[in-house]
Amino acid sequence: MSAIKMTKLEKARVIVQALYNLDELPYEREARGEFRQVSTVISREIKRVARMKADAVEELYQKAHKILSDKVLKDHEASQKAQEESQKEEKIYSQSEADKLIEEAVETALMEHGIKVKEKTESVEYPARISVYHLHHDIWGNASFNFGLGADRNLAQKKAEEIWNDREKNMDHVADVYSDDLEEAYRLTNSIDKNWWKNYEVRSRFTTEGCRSTSVGDFIVKHEMDGDEVYVVAGCGFIKVKEAA
Questions:
Q1: Of 20, 89, 178, 216, which is the most exposed, with the fewest CB atoms less than 10 Å away?
Q2: Higher pLDDT residue, 118 or 50?
Q3: Which among 172, 168, 154 is positioned nearest to 242, based on CA atoms?
Q4: Mean pLDDT of 35-51
Q5: How does strand 227-233 pair with strand 130-135?
Q6: Alpha-carbon gap, residue 244 to 129, rounded angstroms
Q7: CB-based contact 235:216 (threshold 8 Å)
Q8: Angstrom distances, CA of residue 13 to CA of 18, 49, 51
Q9: What is the pTM of this model?
Q10: Do residues 189 and 196 make contact, with C-beta atoms less than 8 angstroms apart?
Q11: Strand (E) positions, the chain?
Q12: What does the pLDDT look like over 161-204, one tens digit per residue?
């Protein structure tokens, strides 16, 4: 307990603060049915306590001091515990690991209720209809000039052929899309309301932490029964690459 001398008014403030922390102040309703402002109630209560006899104020003060001390200690312990919890190393699961854990948990729950789990069968993944390739940064910088709105489409087609025929040097395969529509493939590989590789119809193929959206100058390959059709994204629509090696 502090040895510092305090006036009745100062002790009254401590008492009211303790009551406020316990939410035990006697709030009164006004005619319109709303609680009075907290500051008004606190001021009134401080004045009321300060008018009490010194021994009564002292008794309330001792109790209030303990209430506040306990609260500070409790808050400190809670803060320490929260900090310790946040510092614990959390296991980060890949999507496949998470799916496996969920599947195992579901199987266990079913077996506990006497429901037999069917034998697993190998799932068949159908081939994607479209593949998306992004230009390397050094080439992509000139994409707007080569394939933008003002570009000559014949010259753009020839330039696209040159780039595509040396694709191992010029671009990366970043995605496969389960669609046969070029516009949809373009939309699905653009980050609109989330990262595009989180779209259900997309299988990412890039190996970096993230990947930019598909844009002008990037290539989209449509896989058909009789062969592949190669397109470059233009300022307006797509330009078909005439001779794809």
A1: 89
A2: 50
A3: 154
A4: 66
A5: unpaired
A6: 17
A7: yes
A8: 9, 9, 12
A9: 0.49
A10: yes
A11: 130-135, 171-177, 202-204, 219-224, 227-233, 238-240
A12: 999 999 999 999 999 999 889 999 999 999 998 999 999 889 99
